[in-house]
Design goal:
This protein is 30% helix and 19% strand. It has 20 helices and 27 strands. The structure holds beta-D-glucopyranose (BGC).
Length: 704
């Protein structure tokens, strides 16, 4: 093939030489771990488009087989490298998406994407099923940990950063998933119907995917669920009309696991797989993840002229374009395997772990002072790397493994405390398990009584999170509450550290503990970063990307809800959340002053600059995330009283003042009207700039 041709020319040339079998083969992805040896042989010989969950040298074997097929079309290898190439034991495990979103640091997340891509590509793979752009607004949902939190703007910005990192230099492609409104399923149940309208979709759930498409994301994955009773897999409106035609997404769409079969077996919109395959392809899916029968079904549809061949050609064109772009036809040079968990990636991971921590409460106990000599480290998650890693590592995927230990260096909180404070100064007891009848609370309390401070590491575990694992009860499980109460009763300062996949009900901790540090799933360096924060070796800068309820039944509690006109409060709860999006303390006090707008009257096409001076009044250098919220004062439909529209993270030396400027394109202020038009309505907008949703300066902007 002439390599001087453009990618589009090469795609057309190849397409024109392909048989129907070869075309449909490209549209199938099979899961390596699910194949019998016979099937494995069969699919290799067919020259199918993609394999998932293959690792390392196995990719080479499959690639060789593909090279021997008639047209030698290379397969695309996909993997869930969603917080590092974590299905490979030995690769870097970064903080989970939820944890890293607390950093509000686009640059670090971009670098994390780049590092992950290098490790994935070095392992012979081409494609990560990441980022998750679902919004975690219902905390019961099992996959909250996989998201960038509850806010659409933040998810879009961090999604763009990670996608650009993944796709840098065409090392691999990204996959924005799960399209669409998957996290919004009724009752917080995984893979269920989301009762949202197209207007709401356009306002809240679509923008992060649009940003992903605009930043060149190579693929999008169709969610399991349905929206307003239509399976997303079969939604021509969502996939073909909105994503491909209106937004202009030019990558390819892959279904989620067995989505085609699910149209028949779970969603019952058809009673046979041939119709299911037809529905899926006509709707706009280009590749079927599993549902192996898809191959035969599509061929029979083509033979019987029951499907427009243009749909097939369009799908194959999109898949081939990505393969050419990645250099798979041109003897792609891959990074050396020595990049996997290399020193640079460890350093980056350590930085990200530090910036991902959120200091939620500090009564002055932190950083620990010199008179604290002996520290009791207590709690079920103090030394549990599985809980700390969270979901989507080799521990849990593609198949759960019990007897395996990480090959990389990792720090639980216990190890971090031992190293930072010296082993001789640390005593440890687990106290209790996350579940279960057994507990060792008496022993834990007795060692705590002999200490000067207590670090109590609690939270949740893998069995309470992930697919099929939604929770109705967000209270601390097992004996954890009793443990923390008894530790508080010792009257020693208790520093609670949360290692968890989602917000839990922590009012008690807020009332009684001296300090609270939220780690979520902090990856290899989470435990070290916690110990360093406790010691004051860096200034915490993380802020919550998700809100914490007082009670399980208070969910959803995301910050940008309408006020409600009957008070919006439950009679048996206090008003408000325990912690809200944007909350997070520093060891410094940041003072905001002199808010100014480059224009106070603007029109829809303007981009205005909003500036504020931020002074670090503390003794420590530190980073601060400046947040811009907007309130559309009078609008023809309801709008929240605060909506994030910009943020910047800046480093400010102790005593210094920095001017922070955020650009606001007035188009960002558009609403989606009931007839689905994007309109910037004239009138007043309150511009709020500050630390979080409740500490800010404000000014009025008039849009003409
Ligand atoms: C999940 C996806 C994932 C896929 C492949 C599905 O069960 O919903 O997020 O990418 O499996 O592992």
């Amino acid at each position: 093939m002439d390599t001087n041709l453009s990618i589009d020319e090469r795609v057309e040339d190849l397409l024109s030489r392909m048989t129907d079998e070869e075309k449909v083969g490209q549209m199938l992805q099979v899961s390596y771990n699910m194949l019998s040896p016979e099937d494995y042989e069969k699919y290799q010989n067919l020259g199918i488009g993609s394999f998932l969950h293959v690792l390392g040298e196995d990719t080479e074997k499959i690639r060789q087989k593909a090279a021997n097929t008639r047209l030698s079309i290379p397969p695309l290898f996909g993997i869930d490298a969603i917080h590092g190439h974590c299905l490979l034991n030995g690769a870097t495990v970064f903080p989970s998406q939820l944890a890293m979103s607390s950093s509000f640091n686009r640059e670090l997340i971009y670098e994390m994407g780049k590092a992950t891509a290098l490790e994935v590509a070095a392992d012979g793979l081409d494609w990560t099923f990441s980022p998750v752009l679902c919004l975690a607004r219902d905390l019961r949902w099992g996959r909250v940990n996989e998201t960038f939190g509850e806010d659409s703007y933040l998810a879009g910005e961090l999604g763009k950063a990670i996608i650009e990192g993944y796709e840098y230099d065409n090392n691999i492609i990204a996959c924005a998933k799960h399209y669409l409104a998957y996290g919004e399923a009724t009752g917080g149940r995984d893979a269920y119907d989301s009762e949202v309208t197209e207007r709401k979709i356009r306002e809240v759930f679509l923008p992060p995917f649009k940003k992903a498409a605009d930043s060149g994301c190579g693929s999008v994955m169709t969610a399991y669920g349905s929206i307003d009773s239509q399976p997303i897999t079969a939604s021509k409106r969502l996939l073909r009309e909105i994503l491909k035609e209106e937004i202009g997404f030019d990558g390819f769409i892959v279904t989620d696991w067995e989505n085609v079969r699910s149209l028949m077996t779970n969603q019952h919109v058809t009673d046979n797989l041939t119709d299911a395959s037809k529905l899926a392809v006509e709707a706009g899916n280009d590749m079927s993840m599993n549902t192996h029968e898809f191959y035969e079904c599509m061929l029979s549809l083509i033979r019987d002229s029951k499907i427009d061949i243009n749909f097939i050609n369009d799908a194959v064109r999109r898949i081939l374009r990505v393969k050419f772009k990645l250099g798979l036809f041109d003897n792609k040079q891959r990074p050396d395997r020595s990049v996997i968990a290399c020193k640079e990636h460890k350093e980056l991971n350590h930085k990200l772990a530090r910036e991902s921590l959120v200091l939620l409460k500090n009564n002055g106990t932190l950083p620990l002072k010199g008179d604290i000599k002996k520290i009791a480290v207590i709690g079920p998650n103090a030394d549990d790397v599985r809980a700390q890693y969270g979901d989507w590592t080799f521990f849990s995927h593609p198949v759960p493994k019990e007897n395996v230990t990480p090959k990389t260096d990792y720090y639980t909180v216990l190890r971090g405390m031992n190293e930072i404070f010296g082993k001789d100064n640390i005593v440890y007891n687990k106290g209790c398990d996350i579940f279960g009848e057994e507990n060792y609370i008496d022993k834990a309390v007795s060692i705590a009584k002999d200490s000067d401070a207590i670090v109590c590491v609690i939270g949740d575990c893998l069995a309470q999170n992930g697919e099929y694992r939604d929770r109705a009860n967000l209270e601390l499980s097992g004996y954890q509450k009793e443990l923390i109460e008894k530790l508080v009763n010792t009257k020693k300062p208790v520093i609670a550290v949360l290692v968890n996949c989602k917000p839990l009900c922590i009012s008690y901790l807020k009332d009684k503990c001296s300090a609270i540090i939220e780690m979520f799933n902090g990856g290899d360096f989470g435990g070290l970063a916690v110990a360093e924060l406790i010691k004051g070796m860096f200034n915490p800068s993380g802020k919550l990307s998700i809100s914490f309820p007082q009670h399980s039944a208070q969910t959803p509690c995301y910050y940008n809800q309408y006020t409600g006109w009957h008070g919006g409060q439950y009679v048996d709860l206090n008003k408000g959340n325990v912690y809200t999006f944007g909350d997070g303390l520093s060891y410094s006090e940041f003072k905001y002053s002199n808010l100014r707008l480059s224009k106070t009257t603007a029109s829809a096409d303007d981009i205005i600059k909003i500036s504020v001076d931020v002074t670090n009044n503390g003794d420590m250098d530190g980073k601060e995330t400046v947040m811009l919220f907007v309130n559309d004062v009078v609008s023809s439909i309801l709008t929240p009283t605060k909506e994030l529209k910009g943020f910047e993270k800046v480093f400010i030396k102790a005593g210094d003042t920095k001017t922070v400027t955020i650009k606001l394109p007035i188009k960002e202020l558009s609403i989606v009207t009931p007839d689905l038009k994007y309109v910037v309505e004239s009138g007043e907008f309150e511009i709020m700039v500050g630390r979080n949703t409740h500490e800010y300066l404000s000014k009025i902007l008039t849009v003409k």
